[in-house]
Design goal:
Order of helices and strands of chain A: HHHHH
Number of strands of chain B: 0
Strand content of chain A: under 5%
Mean pLDDT of chain B: 90
Structural class of chain B: mainly alpha
Strand content of chain B: under 5%
Distance between the termini of chain B: 14 Å
Oligomer: heterodimer
Number of helices of chain B: 5
Largest sheet of chain B: none
Number of helices of chain A: 5
Order of helices and strands of chain B: HHHHH
Radius of gyration of chain B: 16 Å
Low-confidence stretches of chain B: none
Shape of chain B: globular
Largest sheet of chain A: none
Chain lengths: 62, 131
């Protein structure tokens, strides 16, 4: 999924998606829920206060 | 456009506006002639050309002039913060100019007034562009 696609699905500018990826912007709770709905994953898998391993690594090890 | 280039063109635009306004204020007070009109024209051209590069191409102008309901939450936050800072800077700057002009018993020229209106419009974009 491209940034533009994700941006359209969650209703933000594609630059905002970039800022989210680079951790230069913290989303509101509403936006965080919308992102988790797009990926059908719990919020805590996508956002965390602690550094997280990439999902691909987690799936490899399980 | 790279961050460095963007900052350069924003600074260039601001300096051009200040030069245009100051020079026009001075030569209008002391009398208009062909040479001074030409120099003011050059400064104005610099303002117009650098505006295109500093604010239009970078979408800074669009970001700070979009209706609020068309901004996403990040854009609204960034734009709101920049406007707040710009308001403070603009108020202090323009009031200082009015105090200086009144102390020197000079009138505000139409060019200075238009330059201040332009400055009020671009200041939030300058603050965003410099971050």
């Amino acid at each position: 999924m491209s940034r533009k696609d994700l941006a359209e699905k969650i209703g933000v500018n594609f630059q905002t998606v970039g800022y989210l990826e680079r951790e230069e912007y913290n989303p509101s709770l509403d936006l965080a829920f919308r992102i988790s709905e797009v990926f059908d994953l719990p919020i805590e898998v996508i956002f965390s206060t602690k550094p997280q391993k990439p999902l691909s690594e987690l799936f490899k090890n399980s | 456009m790279s961050k460095g280039k963007r900052k350069f063109w924003i600074a260039f635009n601001l300096i051009s506006v200040i030069l245009f306004a100051s020079y026009s204020q001075i030569f209008i007070s002391s009398g208009i002639n062909k040479g001074s009109f030409l120099i003011a024209g050059v400064f104005l051209l610099q303002v117009l050309l650098s505006f295109q590069l500093a604010f239009w191409k970078n979408n800074l102008w669009q970001l700070t002039h979009k209706p609020f309901n068309q901004l996403d939450e990040r854009e609204a936050q960034v734009s709101g913060n920049a406007t707040r800072i710009a308001y403070a800077i603009f108020t202090i700057f323009s009031l200082s100019i009015f105090v200086i002009l009144s102390v020197l018993e000079l009138r505000v020229s139409i060019v200075l007034a238009i330059s201040l209106i332009y400055l009020a419009h671009i200041l939030p974009a300058c603050i965003i562009g410099f971050k």
